[in-house]
Task: inverse folding
């Protein structure tokens, strides 16, 4: 049994994956599994037997046609139990289990075993929630019984289960990423449940405001599509009528079924999660995403936004008033309000800006990371850092993302406002404004993070991003003529820039009289102020980076001493990183 | 894997934590079959060095080659070569001892299930833990946990064993067993790189040593060579004379390197810092004076004392 005779583990070979088998062993022990199995089987049998009793009564009462209705209703009820097991219990177990591995310290053993990162991800992905899979499987015979008694068509229930399966994988991957990144077990559990709720319940609501893509991250579109086949026949018929009026999945000029597009959307996100996990398994210090991948993914999200939203403009299905009243036949005189376009464009801009912040966080190196990068470069005789490496500045990548975001936002707005609904021209100068918003807010955020670290950025986000909005809202609600002051106050927050930009610049905007003058003025003023601050930060950051590079390149320093003194001297107010910064890496404890 | 190459080659290894340099351009070579000890005070850079050697940490820069395999070029092969036992070796709470080892045997791809079970039994036997095979890992004592993790480390027959404080928590019997296991492994061609704070034991266990302080290698070689490289020539000498103690003491006090002299008849005890030749001259001188010498004893500073000196100087410098 020498080294050559040791077998390698293929990532796809789940049944021989040692991590999967290890969890099968520990999580499927009769003592632990038994109680859970009993509870789940009790609930499933209760639902099924209740349905059976109800059906028997209907037959006895002379309403045999209602048997199907009862069975279908019970199938839906059992479905919720199944989704709870897979989505909630499974995701929590994945996130908590991953953090427990790190808490106990055994994760280092797993890092050392000669398995590919992908094989490890697969092992954990299916191993940690294996008990939940077994619990789910225990309910499947009951579901099949209800499917058969309820005459639910195969092409109805199979797509629902396929979408539930892909959603489960996506949710569990979310939990795995959270568990890998979160430092504390309790936080991992809360963060994973919070993230799952946010990503797959709250954010999909943005579909109502034009960002239709987000709907397809959840199982909901497939369930809604198949609803007529799942509901009792009379209710199903109503749902079918409603569905004919509902938007179908269109992606630019292409038509997809709900299931295919859901799998496509979820697959992209799942792939990104897998890339993140593999990177973390290869090197626990690395960024979640490489710079190129992050930028590419950001641009891809823009393509998805546009691909889903643009085809809905012409038929008018993108407008909230139309979406909310789609059950009513709309007359030819129907016309969307101007505010709807302003809101749709503004929300597009805000979501793009938030995504820009998220991706900027992923690609921005910490100060430690930068110093190490420069030292490595010095050793290798290089004069600069490889532009795609983790220690390299994230500035240029965020710049590209900001321009791509501005481009997507402008294109969406252009198509919306120049459509048959408004027929107003959108000049190219508006793109300039949109680009300025993205660049000022995005680069300001990135530069602050790179120069001052997470804590300083967090405080800035609270006091510049959030507090002015809250204060503005409070003042605006007061009686009197304080609305203009509130508008000026809210305008301080860079998060308000996209809304202010659309409200100020779009020809269809109709602002209330009391803030009609304040909003454009506040927008221009605060954009200018933020631009100047961002520019100043950029200039100082560049000087600091140059000083750091020069210092590190100058030669070796005394062991145990600080080496980045010139950075602090060049940038006393900017690049003096907090000692207790979360990004600061503590040396491992020596025993 | 190059069978002619040294077991461990570290070149210009550097590890930084922000502005703190944990390992500073460390270079060392460990031949095959050695039990090589790494000694140093807290913060010397031992754990960081081990973490890099075991592929758990990316260094700022530097090269690590194990049996001819560059660990950053071929991670998977390197991981098959390495057996790592961390300090305060953790075990999972939800597995039994046998299951824990069988999981790792499977993760290293060791043969079929029967072969793996046999190998687990062998390793448990090696660390005298066979009776605990069906015990829960969480129920083990600290020493038993150490032994189980050592068994895990040996499972895949690694050719380079990296053990961080393996003897901590072990009772004297288990320490003796550990020493024997390490020696046996070294005889079969494996190389053991071990750190410990029980320095006397490390000196006993290891064929060679290196001393690190503030991220730098201060000395390496066998115990005497290390002592010499650390420049520790300090010793306590005791001259036992039959008569003329005061005269002998007065003569000794005037010699270079002699200090802290006191007379406790019939012994004259004094500290001496000088070469072996100068020490021989002292004895010759006393005899030449006609003093009847009964014995001349030497007590060198223990290895522990030397390291305490190193740690003290470290503290003063920082």
Result:
């Amino acid at each position: 049994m020498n080294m050559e005779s040791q077998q390698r583990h293929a990532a796809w070979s789940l049944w021989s994956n040692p991590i999967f088998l290890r969890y099968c062993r520990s999580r499927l022990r009769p003592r632990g599994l038994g109680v859970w199995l009993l509870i789940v089987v009790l609930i499933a049998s209760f639902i099924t037997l209740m349905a059976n009793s109800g059906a028997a009564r209907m037959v006895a009462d002379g309403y045999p046609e209602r048997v199907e209705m009862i069975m279908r209703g019970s199938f839906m009820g059992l479905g919720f139990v199944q989704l709870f097991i897979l989505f909630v219990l499974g995701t929590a177990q994945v996130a908590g289990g991953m953090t427990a591995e790190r808490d106990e310290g055994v994760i280092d053993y797993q890092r050392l075993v000669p398995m590919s990162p992908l094989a490890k991800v697969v092992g954990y992905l299916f191993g940690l929630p294996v008990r939940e899979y077994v619990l789910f499987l225990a309910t499947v015979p009951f579901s099949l019984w209800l499917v058969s008694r309820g005459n639910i068509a195969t092409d109805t229930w199979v797509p629902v289960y396929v979408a539930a399966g892909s959603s489960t994988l996506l949710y569990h991957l979310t939990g795995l990423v959270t568990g890998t990144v979160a430092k504390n077990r309790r936080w991992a559990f809360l963060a994973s449940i919070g993230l799952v709720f946010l990503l797959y319940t709250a954010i999909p609501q943005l579909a109502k405001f034009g960002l239709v893509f987000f709907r397809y991250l959840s199982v909901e579109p497939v369930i809604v599509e198949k609803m007529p086949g799942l509901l009792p026949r009379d209710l199903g018929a109503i749902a079918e009528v409603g569905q004919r009026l509902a938007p179908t999945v269109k992606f630019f000029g292409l038509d997809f079924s709900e299931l295919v597009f859901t799998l496509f959307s979820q697959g992209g996100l799942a792939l990104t999660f897998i890339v993140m996990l593999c990177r973390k398994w290869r090197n626990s210090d690395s960024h979640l995403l490489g710079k190129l991948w992050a930028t590419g993914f950001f641009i891809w999200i823009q393509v998805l936004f546009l691909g889903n939203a643009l085809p809905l403009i012409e038929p008018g299905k993108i407008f909230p008033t139309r979406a909310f009243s789609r059950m009513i036949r709309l007359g030819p005189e129907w016309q969307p309000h101007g505010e709807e376009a302003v809101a749709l464009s503004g929300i597009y801009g805000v979501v793009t800006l938030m995504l820009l912040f998220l991706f900027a966080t992923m690609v921005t190196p910490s100060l430690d990371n930068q110093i190490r990068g420069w030292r490595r470069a010095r050793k290798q005789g290089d004069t600069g850092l490889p532009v795609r490496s983790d220690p390299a500045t994230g500035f240029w990548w965020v710049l590209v993302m900001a321009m791509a975001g501005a481009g997507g936002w402008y294109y969406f707005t252009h198509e919306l406002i120049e459509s048959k609904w408004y027929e107003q021209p959108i000049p190219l100068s508006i793109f300039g404004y949109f680009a300025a918003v993205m660049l000022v807010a995005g680069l300001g955020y990135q530069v602050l993070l790179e120069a001052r670290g997470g804590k300083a950025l967090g405080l800035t986000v609270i006091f510049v991003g959030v507090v002015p909005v809250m204060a503005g809202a409070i003042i605006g609600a007061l009686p009197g003529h304080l609305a203009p002051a509130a508008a000026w106050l809210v305008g301080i927050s860079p998060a308000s820039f996209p809304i202010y930009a659309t409200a100020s610049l779009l020809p269809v905007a109709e602002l209330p009289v009391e803030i009609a003058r304040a909003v454009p003025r506040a927008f221009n003023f605060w954009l200018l102020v933020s631009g100047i601050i961002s520019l100043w930060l950029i200039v100082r950051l560049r000087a600091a980076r140059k000083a750091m590079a020069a210092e590190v390149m100058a030669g070796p320093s005394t062991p145990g001493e600080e080496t980045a003194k010139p950075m602090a001297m060049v940038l006393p107010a900017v690049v003096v990183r907090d000692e207790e910064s979360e990004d600061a890496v503590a040396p491992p404890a020596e025993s | 894997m190059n069978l002619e190459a040294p077991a461990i080659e570290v070149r210009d290894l550097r590890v930084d934590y922000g502005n703190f340099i944990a390992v500073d351009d460390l270079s060392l070579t460990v031949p095959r079959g050695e039990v090589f000890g790494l000694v140093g005070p807290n913060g010397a850079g031992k754990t960081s060095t081990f973490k890099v050697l075991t592929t758990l940490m990316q260094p700022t820069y530097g090269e690590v080659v194990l049996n001819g395999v560059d660990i950053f070029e071929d991670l998977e092969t390197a991981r098959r070569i390495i057996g790592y036992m961390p300090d305060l070796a953790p075990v999972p709470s939800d597995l039994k001892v046998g299951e824990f080892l069988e999981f790792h045997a499977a993760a290293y791809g060791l043969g079929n299930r029967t072969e793996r079970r046999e190998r687990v039994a062998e390793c448990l036997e090696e660390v005298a833990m066979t009776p605990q095979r069906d015990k829960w890992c969480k129920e083990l004592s600290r020493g038993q946990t150490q032994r189980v993790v050592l068994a895990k480390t040996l499972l895949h027959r690694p050719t380079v064993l990296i053990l961080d404080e393996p003897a901590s928590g072990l009772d004297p019997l288990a320490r003796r067993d550990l020493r024997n296991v390490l020696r046996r492994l070294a005889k079969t061609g494996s190389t053991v790189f071990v750190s410990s704070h029980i320095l006397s034991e490390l000196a006993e266990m290891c064929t060679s040593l290196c001393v690190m302080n503030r991220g730098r290698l201060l000395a390496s070689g066998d115990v005497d060579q290390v002592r010499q490289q650390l420049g520790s020539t300090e010793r306590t000498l005791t001259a036992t004379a039959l008569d003329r103690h005061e005269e002998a003491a007065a003569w000794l006090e005037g010699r270079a390197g002699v200090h802290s002299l006191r007379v406790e008849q019939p012994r004259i005890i004094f500290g001496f810092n000088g070469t072996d030749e100068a020490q021989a001259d002292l004895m010759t001188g006393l005899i030449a004076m006609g003093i009847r010498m009964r014995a001349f004893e030497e007590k060198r500073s223990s290895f522990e004392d030397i390291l305490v000196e190193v740690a003290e100087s470290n503290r003063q410098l920082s």
Chain B has two domains: 8-229, 234-300. The longest strand of chain B covers residues 20-30. Residues 8-229 of chain B form a domain with the Rossmann fold fold (CATH 3.40.50.300). DSSP finds eleven helices and 14 strands in chain B.
